[in-house]
Write a structure and sequence with these properties.
single chain; nine-stranded mixed sheet; 5 helices; 11 strands
């Protein structure tokens, strides 16, 4: 029996497919099912590299959490951040089998905070998360943009303590339903010096100098834009462009 339990701080990930309704209108129901199965099988396999727990999929929405059911200290935000970057990288080579010329994009949101988790129901019981943290994470996704990872101030603060992530404040405040105007941030990549060879056990203490690893997560530096770089400002020679098509 799994008893309801409160977790003081976890990080929740939400994503959905941009233009899913339009894609569905061009597809047969079985083709939609096959597309989602192909995509989320890729994501499910990717998750195994990280200390993350897949909560559920609802239609084209995909929900993941780190920090429960097993607590992992303050590593949850970094785990979700690295996983999110990995998902975007996977999309570069993903092909919709029945629409090979159409590119699939997702919108990602992440937020950190307290939740209550437990099993709901007796027939097909599900492990569910409750609390405003879930709603806020969902808003981070729905108010985001294609091929981008939007995070809250809370997630940003936790990643600040880790260092090694390249983050840019979003221009202006974002008016979120039920939340008012919020300052949010774009996760753009990691510094090239960040060692993430073993992402499941990544902590600030393992952010050691190791070049040429995990190049798909690197980002370049646009000096014309204001960036928040943690913990130091990367130079262009130390970064490579985050691969996008």
């Amino acid at each position: 029996m799994v008893l309801p339990e409160k977790f003081e701080c976890v990080t929740i990930y939400f994503s959905d497919i941009v233009g899913f309704t339009a894609i569905s209108s061009l597809s047969k129901p079985m083709e939609v099912l096959d597309m989602l199965n192909d995509l989320y099988t890729v994501f499910d396999t990717c998750i195994e590299k990280y200390d993350c727990y897949k909560v559920e999929t609802i239609g084209d929405a995909y929900m993941v959490v780190s920090g429960l059911p097993v607590r992992n200290g303050d590593r949850h935000a970094a785990q979700i951040a690295l996983m999110s970057l990995d998902f975007l990288s996977c999309l570069n080579t993903f092909v919709i089998s029945h629409l090979p010329d159409k590119k699939l994009n997702i919108r990602i949101g992440m937020h950190s905070g307290p939740v209550v988790a437990g099993i709901v129901g007796k027939k097909m019981p599900r492990y569910c998360l409750f609390g405003d943290t879930v709603n806020t994470a969902s808003r981070m996704e729905s108010n985001g943009e294609a091929k981008k990872i939007q995070m809250s101030t809370q997630s940003y603060g936790i990643l600040s303590n880790h260092g090694g992530f390249v983050i840019q404040p979003r221009d202006g405040l974002v008016d979120m339903k039920g939340k008012g105007k919020q300052q949010t941030y774009w996760l753009q990549g990691v510094e090239k010096d960040l060692n993430i060879d073993n992402p499941r056990h990544f902590t600030d203490k393992t952010a050691l100098l190791k070049r040429e690893s995990n190049s798909q997560f690197y980002t370049d530096t646009d000096t014309t834009k204001k960036q928040t770089v943690l913990p130091k400002t990367p130079q262009s020679k130390d970064m490579v462009k985050l691969q996008q098509s």
